[in-house]
Write a structure and sequence with these properties.
Strand content of chain A: 25-35%
Number of domains of chain B: 1
Largest sheet of chain B: none
Structural class of chain A: alpha/beta
Distance between the termini of chain A: 31 Å
Low-confidence stretches of chain B: none
Strand order of the largest sheet of chain A: 5-6-7-3-8-9
Radius of gyration of chain A: 23 Å
Number of helices of chain A: 10
Oligomer: heterodimer
Structural class of chain B: mainly alpha
């Protein structure tokens, strides 16, 4: 990770009288995987289009690898690979023909070997000669990503990449993105509303809502900032009759389990120490500390 | 211009013609009717029967009598039988507007698929996300509809000429087709007209949601030719080579104005708004 590769400054965009993007500013560092999170209609897709210069902002400045997408759009697009939400493939053409066609547009060297390599990487070797029209949505998505990677882009934009994928497909994809980022330092901007899947993948997160930036940061920072209370599910032989134990509130109980509420992370070892003095502890699980909880919390507070 | 991208888009679009029956079927049927069936139905019976006894030919006969002075009148009237006069006249002049309908139809159908089709299938977005300059993209799409339409017209004319001369030779003992007006029609008027039809489809596709809608609206470009056809019967427009030169010239002018205006206004943002959103 290092230098800034994308920068948006005070971007506004209105469509048919509705403000889609509202004074949006953020930057992306080279080599980072950025989770771009927000509900449907929050402006994620529009932002990707703006960065790629296929639509122009009403005001504000964008720079991608020091190029302005409005005036030097093709320089930007050469460096970017995009998986759009609809994948944008030709259904009447075979998987291979689709890749070969886009390879021409992106001026890929030795298109055939590159296309075959990507088809193999995405488990589509058997479907090479099959028309995309008969593909499952997961296969289309994988082919769409293969298409986005044809020209070895520096920046990869993935718009809802795991939508329509089964859990296995989603896991494979996430591993592939990790690998791509690790091996080739590809910068990834991943727009999604499926938070659980990307929680461990992204280095940093940006939350947007109605075209406005709500919050940005790495997971631990955001947790520190927003999740003041932590819910701790402890599997223990401890028996407590009251609402509290050693000053920590008990939220919930089940046979063999107690759920405590602590104010901060540092309280956890202290609480456990107290329990261990009188009873065994078999397992501890923090809940309410995943991205989803964070997302709702941020939305609630920053809206 | 990026020739690699332009070639790839043209190739893709031309290949797509074959995979859609709604596109290739009319392109197959109409040429067969205009190039083979129509001249055949006129000429073959004419070798055996008096055409005047078959149906009501008064209009055409009257037309023949009133031909304006010139080479056509002289040649047409120089034939010894009514049948020969009528065949010669129909083959070289009366049927000419059909060969304006062929490129128009082809350009409209392929154009509808090429523009509105990409919009409908959400693939235009992928094209606009590619690092292909807009003029390249624009001309690739224009050519991918124009080239097949133009070559189809040439092919149909060749077939037509073959059919006409083969069937009429026993009667005339000479080749009666083509006349100079055909060459002007094919190489001056037709390309301008096809290009115009493609442009009309570009405009239509910006306003419609899908191929079907564009296809139906695009069919309207044939209307002016029908007017021309009526004019042909009553006023013999396409007989006149001067008229043909002017017709071609005005069509080219319209095309040029369109190209210039589009060239000035073309930007990705607007194209995206009209073709994707």
């Amino acid at each position: 990770m290092g230098k800034e590769i994308i920068r948006l400054e005070k971007i506004n965009k209105t469509f048919a009288g509705t403000q889609i993007i509202n004074n949006l500013s953020f930057s992306v560092q080279r080599g980072e995987i950025l989770g771009f999170l927000g509900p449907n209609g929050s402006g994620k897709t529009t932002t990707i289009r703006l960065i790629n210069g296929v639509i122009y902002p009403d005001s504000g400045q964008i720079s991608v690898a020091s190029f302005d997408p409005v005036t030097a759009g093709n320089e930007v697009r050469k460096r970017c690979g995009v998986l759009t939400e609809s994948a944008g493939l030709y259904e009447n053409m075979t998987a291979l023909d689709n890749l070969l066609f886009f390879a021409e547009l992106y001026e890929v060297k030795s298109p055939l070997s590159r296309a075959k390599e990507l088809l193999a990487d995405f488990g589509l070797s058997d479907a090479t000669k099959k028309k995309v029209g008969i593909f499952s949505s997961g296969m289309k998505k994988r082919l769409g990503i293969a298409k986005a990677l044809l020209h070895n882009p520096e920046i990869l934009f993935l718009d809802e990449p795991t939508n329509g994928l089964d859990p296995e497909g989603a896991r494979d994809l996430i591993n592939y993105i990790k690998e791509l980022n690790r091996k080739y330092q590809v910068t990834v901007l991943l727009a999604t509303h499926l938070l659980k899947q990307v929680q461990d993948l992204c280095h940093r997160f940006i939350f947007i809502h109605q075209g406005r930036l709500l919050e940005t940061g790495i997971l631990t920072e955001l947790e520190e900032k927003y999740l003041r209370r932590i819910s701790l599910k402890v599997e223990t032989g401890l028996e407590v009759s009251g609402e509290e134990f050693a000053g920590y509130r008990i939220e919930n109980r089940a046979p063999g389990y107690l759920q405590f509420q602590v104010e901060k992370k540092d309280d956890i070892p202290l609480l456990l120490k107290e329990i261990l003095l009188v009873a065994p502890v078999y397992s501890v699980e923090m809940s309410g500390r995943d991205l989803e909880a964070l997302y709702f919390k941020i939305r609630e507070e920053r809206r | 211009m990026k020739t690699r991208a332009v070639k790839a888009i043209i190739k893709k679009d031309i290949m797509a013609i074959g995979s859609n029956v709604q596109i290739w079927l009319p392109m197959l049927l109409i040429p067969i009717i205009f190039s083979l069936v129509l001249p055949g139905v006129l000429i073959i019976p004419a070798r055996f029967y008096e055409l005047t006894t078959i149906g009501n030919m008064d209009t055409i006969l009257k037309l023949l009598d009133n031909l304006p002075p010139g080479a056509l009148r002289e040649i047409t009237l120089s034939f010894d039988t009514v049948n020969k006069k009528m065949i010669y006249f129909a083959v070289n002049y009366l049927f000419a507007p059909f060969f304006l309908i062929i490129p128009l139809m082809a350009a409209s159908v392929i154009g509808a698929n090429s523009f509105a089709g990409e919009k409908e299938r959400k693939t235009m977005e992928s094209l606009l996300f590619a690092p292909v300059a807009l003029p390249s993209l624009f001309w690739a799409k224009i050519l991918s509809a124009f080239l097949p339409a133009f070559f189809l017209t040439i092919l149909c004319s060749l077939l037509y000429g073959l059919m006409v001369n083969l069937t009429a030779y026993p009667l005339f003992h000479a080749l009666i087709f083509p006349q100079p007006n055909w060459l002007i029609l094919l190489f001056w008027v037709t390309p301008a007209l096809s290009l115009g039809a493609v442009f009309v489809n570009v405009l239509i596709s910006a306003k419609v949601k899908g191929f079907q809608e564009a296809y139906q609206l695009g069919g309207l470009v044939i209307l002016p030719v029908l007017v021309l056809f009526v004019g042909q019967i009553t006023g013999l427009l396409l007989v006149n080579t001067v008229f043909l030169w002017w017709l071609g010239a005005s069509l080219w002018l319209i095309d040029l104005i369109f190209i210039k205006r589009v060239g000035e206004r073309l930007n990705r943002d607007k194209l995206f708004a009209s073709q994707v959103l």
